[in-house]
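**Reference record**
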Amino acid sequence: MDNETLLPEEANNGLIDDRMEEDGSPSTVLDLTSWQLHDLDSVDLTPSLTELDLTSNRLSRIDPRIGHLKNLKKLSLRQNLFDDAGIQPISSWGEISGLEELVLRDNKLMKIPDVSIFKNLLVFDVSFNEISSLSGLSKVSNILKELYVSKNEVTKMEEIEHFDQLQILELGSNRLRLMENLENLISLRELWLGRNRIRAVNLCGLKYIKKISLQSNRLTSMKGFEECVALEELYLSHNGISKLEGLSTLVNLRLLDVSSNKLTSVDNIENLTRLEDLWLNDNQIASLEGLAEAVTGSREHLTTIYLEHNPCASSPNYLVSLRQMFPNVQQIDSEVFA
C-alpha cells in the first residue's frame, strides 16, 4: 500500500497530534518521520500546524504550502536531500517568520542559509552538511539559544559575536584550529568542540559555562580553564596532555575525562571536592601510589573511576585497593558494584 493511501488513515491514528502548550495555547503536530516521501503532494498540511517533522524522507525541494502555516513554531527537515537551492525559498516566507526551531541537519547544504526573517528563532541546527564557513550567521537572530553546526568543514569561528543569549554551541567535527570570538557569549552553558585541530585553550573568560568538550583535538596542555569556575563537566580525551594542571579553581567540577592522553601521574586535583566521575583510562600512569592523596578532596564523593589500560591496572589487588581508597565508589572500569 502506498503512502497516498496510508496517510489519511495514519493521520486519524495519531500522526496528527493535537496538544496543549505549557502556556495553554493549542498545539498541532504532524510527524512524517521515515515515510521516505519524495514530495508532500499526498499530504494535507493543516493550517493550524505548530510543529512539522519531516525527518528521514527523500525531499529535495521545500513545499511552498509550508510557507503559509502561520502558526508554525518548529520545522524539522533533518536527513533529507536538500541543497542550498532547495532550501532557499524559506528565506522569504514571511508568514512563518514566527518560527522558533529550524532543523536542517544531515542534508547537502554548502553554506549557512539565510534565516534572517525568523526573528524569534531559538534553535538552529545545520549539522552534518558540507558547510565550509560560518558566514551568514551574523544574520541569525541574536536571541538564539542553541546553535548546532557539527560535522561540517568549518575552519574558523566567526560571526558568532552577537549571540549574547546563546546557551549551547556545537561545532564538533570540523576543521577549527583556534578558539576565538567567544568573548560576548556571556550566557553560554555548553561548548562542544570535539574532533577539531585545536592546540590551545582560549575561553575568553566564560565564567558561567558548565560543560566543555575538547575531545580528539591537539592539546598538550590543560591551561586555560582557570576562569571557568562554574564548570561541571570537562571532556579532554584523545589529546596529547601529559600533566594535570590548571584545575584548582574548578571547584564545581563533577566529571573530568582525561582518558587516552599521556598522563604518567595524578596530581593537582585536590581542590575538586565535588568530583564524582574521573576517567583516566588509556594513559601511562604507573602506580596507584599517591592516588588517594591526589583526590583527597573528593574521596567521599567519587562514584566512578576508570583506570584500565594503564600500567597501574596490573597492580596486585588493583580493585581492592581502589575500593578501599574510595568508600562510595560504584564503578571501577567495567566493574559495577551494588
About this structure: Residues 1-14 have pLDDT under 50 and may be disordered. The domain at 216-338 is CATH 3.80.10.10 (Leucine-rich repeat, LRR (right-handed beta-alpha superhelix)). Residues 3-15 form the longest helix (13 residues). The CA atoms of residues 292 and 325 lie 6 Å apart.
